[in-house]
Amino acid sequence: MHVYGELSGVLTPAGTLSGKLSTPKSIIGQITAPLYVYPPVYTGNYEVTPSDTEQVLETDAFYMNGNVTINPIPSNYGLITWNGSTLTVS
């Protein structure tokens, strides 16, 4: 096989190749590129209600199909503290 020139460039997400042909000759052959594979879709909860413990939505490396909704603090939520003699609810 004889190589008379080289085509270099960038293959865009739209599937087009642009670049500069370094010789006036034509190119005969096939250009292939791997298909882009999207990450898996997140199927967990998209809604969070505040609490006194940390909550993590395991979304790392997933494609999300919607917005995350953070609900308001529940009206019955209170902070209970005990100092050894007095119980306080605030």
The main β sheet shows up as:
2 strands, antiparallel
Number of helices: 0
Overall radius of gyration: 29 Å
Shape: rod-shaped
Helix content: under 10%
- Strand proportion: 15-25%
H-E order: EEEEEE
Oligomer: single chain
Mean pLDDT: 78
Distance separating the two termini = 82 Å
Outline the structure in words.
- The chain is mainly beta and 90 residues long.
- 0% of the residues lie in helices and 22% in strands.
- It has no helices and 6 strands.
- Strands 1-2 form a two-stranded antiparallel ribbon.
- Strand 5 and strand 6 form a beta hairpin.
- The radius of gyration is 29 Å and the shape is rod-shaped.
Secondary-structure map with pairings?
Elements: E1 7-11, E2 17-21, E3 47-48, E4 69-70, E5 80-82, E6 87-89
Parallel strand pairs: 3-4
Antiparallel strand pairs: 1-2, 5-6
Considering the chains and any ligands shown, give keywords for the structure.
90 residues; mainly beta; two-stranded antiparallel ribbon; two-stranded parallel sheet; 6 strands; 22% strand
Summarize the model shown.
By secondary structure, the protein is mostly beta strands. It is built from no helices and 6 strands.
